[in-house]
Fold:
Amino acid sequence: AYLNFDSSKLTKFVHDNELAEMQAMVNAADSELRNGTGAGSDFRDWLDLPTNYDHEEFDRIKKAAAKINQDSKYLITIGIGGSYLGAQMALDFLHNNFYTREEETTQVVFAGNSLSSTYLQDLIELVGDADFSINIISKSGTTTEPAVAFRVFKEILIAKYGEEEANKRIYATTDANRGALKEEADANGWETFVIPDGVGGRFSVLTAVGLLPIAVSGADIDELMKGARDAQNEYVDADLTKNEAYQYAALRNILYRKGFTTELLENYEPNMRMFSEWWKQLMGESEGKDQKGIYPSSANFTTDLHSLGQYIQEGLRNLFETVVKVDKPTKDIKIPSQEGNLDGLEYLQGKSMDWVNTKAYEGVVLAHTDGGVPVMTVHIPDQSAYTLGYTIYFFEVAVGISGYLNGINPFNQPGVEAYKTNMFGLLGKPGYEEIGKKLNDQL
Ligand code: PA5
Structure:
């Protein structure tokens, strides 16, 4: 397999027979996922997206990216949740840690993923007089956070370029037929890209949602899709001995039933922090429902070994860890020699820094295992676009199986509506007057 899933350090927590004993349940989950007999079956189109995507649109994405690279210093990418996290994590994963400071290319900057006025004003000041375009991304077309940010930047865009040119600088990624954004796009002649009906927000990174900003950043979206396509072909067998994504799903379920109810996704690369944020949405929104589910959390190592490390080693024993370890770093550095050895580091001179990082990882795995924390590792070969596509698909297919193993609908998200209703009531949105009155009384 291209990725290498290592569960060998679980022996203290999971007996040899346990995985095989999950096979019948995995077969059932596989059948629900593949045959559409499970709950939420209308939202499984991400499963064959890497082979069955709209090639005409894919080419339009590349053309739009080329135009934006020509005429814009900034691409204001506006979206939240599934319409944001995938693009941000991919940009971070694929580029230099300081890539936003490179002058030559279009800078992809994000807005509409919070309601912070300070953030938005800071961004307006960053863009200043520079040329820019907007990619507004919203499946529903009505989400408040992106809608507010879009209004603000649309006004600036029109003031700067006039309506006609502004309309050529707005790219709308939304539903094929429905929603306020689709209507506005059609009315103004904006170029539109589609979030397919059968792909939920958190599974949409390999649609135009992720692909346009990723292409604008200069990353290779063909390779990204190729990696996902190869993973699609790799993780098809329901046989647990042959399918590592399914093994991961089954082992998380085994651990969950033993009381390990919080999973930490971990990395040893600072530019994978957002990968964990993307993964947290994928896992949390898919599995946290019906008053059950593993709580997805994350830690960034070795940084957080100096903060969360104490808790992980000795705190409440409900944690397990999944490390996504890059086997070959994008860049490596040799540790220099220093006369006098005053810092006491001479025993490391000439060693590669990544070797030290890997020794830290090995030491942590053994220490945490000793401390009562089960640790699994997904080894990924490198931080290429191909590997990212592959890894995205690994976790997507794993959460589909994992959700069905836990008897929930992995593809809906009814819980995200509750706060919205309250917010609309408090904001005085037409139609929400009664709930607004009730809530204001409570406040
Ligand atoms: O996964 C989800 O459904 C959510 O995180 C949505 O992606 C998020 O709420 C944004 O929704 P929309 O794309 O409709 O603006």
Remarks:
- The pocket of 5-phosphoarabinonic acid is lined by residues 80-83, 138-140, 143, 146, 200-202, 285, 413 (CB under 6 Å).
- Strands lie at 4-6, 74-78, 107-111, 132-138, 170-174, 191-194, 262-267, 295-300, 319-326, 375-380.
- The two ends are 56 Å apart (CA to CA).
- Residues 249 and 398 are 5 Å apart (CA to CA).
